[in-house]
Amino acid sequence: MKSPHEDKIRKPPFETADLRENLKEFLDSPFHDPVTKEMRAVGNFKWGVYAFYDYDGEPIYVGQTNEMLRVRIRRHLTNQRTDAVVMSVLDPFEVLEIEVWPLPQFQQTDRKDKLAKSLLDTLENAVAAKALLDSHFKAILNEKDPPLASQQIEIPPSLRKRIVSDRVYELRSHPDFRAARRALIVSRLA
After folding, report:
1. How many CB atoms neighbour CB 138 within 10 A?
2. Cβ contacts of residue 154 below 8 Å, gap of 6+?
3. Secondary structure of the chain: what % helix, strand, coil (to 5)?
4. Which residues 6+ apart lie within 8 Å of 49 measured at CB?
5. Residue 136 DSSP one-character state
C-alpha cells in the first residue's frame, strides 16, 4: 500500500531523465590516460577544459575545472549553481554536444598548484580562440573573457559527443521551440 507521501513524489520530465542518462553515458565514456596508459572515464579527470555546442554546431560556452570534469559539467547542465546558468548566459536546453580536453598529467596535482593553473588557463584560452574561429557568428556566450595565456600550447586530444536522444533532438531542434526558448532567455536577461 502506498503512503500519501509516495503519491506526491513525481518522476522527472522525460527530457530531464534523458539528459541525466545521456550525460552520465558521456561522462563515463572511456578516454585514454597517457600518464597511466589506461582507459579512464572522461568525467573522472580532475583538470580539464570543456565546451558546449548548440543544435547548429555552434560553440556556445567554454569553461575549465580543477575539481573534476564530471562535477563541473553536471553542475552547469543539471542545476542553477553556476554563474553562466544563473545569469542566463548558458541555456542548458541549447546544449546538444559536449567536448572535453582532460589534462591527465595533473590528476594528482593540488588545485593551488600555479604551474597547473597556468596551463589550464592557457588551454582554456586556446580552446576559446579555436571556438571563436570555428564559430559562424565569431562569438561564444561566456559570462567573461577566457584567462590570458601565459604560454603557447598544443591543444591535446579531446572527446566530443552528443548528449540528447533522437526523441529530445526532434523536439528541441524545431525552429519554433528554439525561438521560444531564446525569447525566454532574452526576457530573463532584460
Report:
1. 9
2. none
3. 45, 15, 40
4. 62, 63, 64, 100, 101, 103, 120, 123, 124, 127
5. S
Q: Cell 589550464 identifies what position? A: 120
Better-predicted residue by pLDDT, 77 or 9: 77
154-177 b/e with 16+ CB inside 10 Å = b?
eebebbeeebbeeebeeebeeeee
Q: Which three cell numbers stand for residue 100?
A: 572535453
Reported as a single tens digit per residue, the pLDDT across 154-186 is: 999 999 999 999 998 888 887 887 777 777 766
Sequence spans of domains, the chain: 14-189
pLDDT, average across residues 22-44? 95
User: Which of 86-90, 115-119, 146-150, 165-169 has the least mean pLDDT?
Assistant: 86-90
